[in-house]
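#onboarding

Welcome to the new folks! Below is a worked example of what a typical request in this channel looks like: someone posts a single protein sequence, and someone else replies with the predicted structure as tokens. Don't worry about understanding the tokens yet, we'll cover that in week two.

Example request:
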Amino acid sequence: MSDLPTSLRIGASPALSLPTADDPLTGVTIATPDVATAHAKPSGRSQEILLALPKDDYLKALSAYLRKQGLTVIETETARATIVQALTGEKIGVIVTADDLPDLPGMELLARLRDLGVATPIALLVDAYSEVREEVALECGAAEFLCRSQRHSIVAKRLSLLAAGSKRNSRQDPSATENLKVGRLLLKSHCHRALWRGREVPLTITEVRIVRLLACRAGTTISYREIYDVVHGAGFRAGEGTDGFRTNVRSLIRKIRRRFHTIDHGFDEIENHPGIGYCWRSAPAAQALPPPARSSMTD
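Example response:
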């Protein structure tokens, strides 16, 4: 790993002094999470794909296919290099990692990046599908769960959608540039945050998408399949049998409810219609709100 500097001050310039901390894995001096997020992230998401994968035939083939589709690909082979690139790269739209990196398993890298304040969508790539591992990955903040057995065209489409920030159906969701208010719920799309009664709910990006889907159509039952498609895209099969995805959806909804309960023990807006799906309780019509004007201050 001698190709990387042993000390790097993220976001620093002669005219700007930022608070920093030494990351124990990389040995890199980085800005603290809030500052790193504010200064190292662009105002809009680009189409650059960061592949943090071992250098093998799969990486070579996937990288070539993505480039053929017009996507810009950046490759890193270690967790250390990935963290540096994630904090300094201003055009990264999505990060893909796997568990066979030499210095840190992909799941731990995912958690490390989230701890450092990296909000870029992260996809975990595995050799074979596992419902348990998918659940853990989503819990850790993964935006996508991919398998090496999937066709490159499917992987490319999902990564492209993540990078474009458009992995949602426009008829279900207002414009990605708009905030959404439904009763006591406020969803801030520009930073993937949810507020309930004015307090932030500790949801992952994937969980925010699910809540948005339900809240946008309050009073309407959303099927298990449609909820699962928000996570993986239409047609993805998971679990045992043709309806294995139902188990995943039930698990995701349980986690979402628990997160709301951390700030409101009486939260009961998500109803279950057994065998059909879930519904956000009826509320006044959803209101699409313009995002606040951008400034140097965080929300």
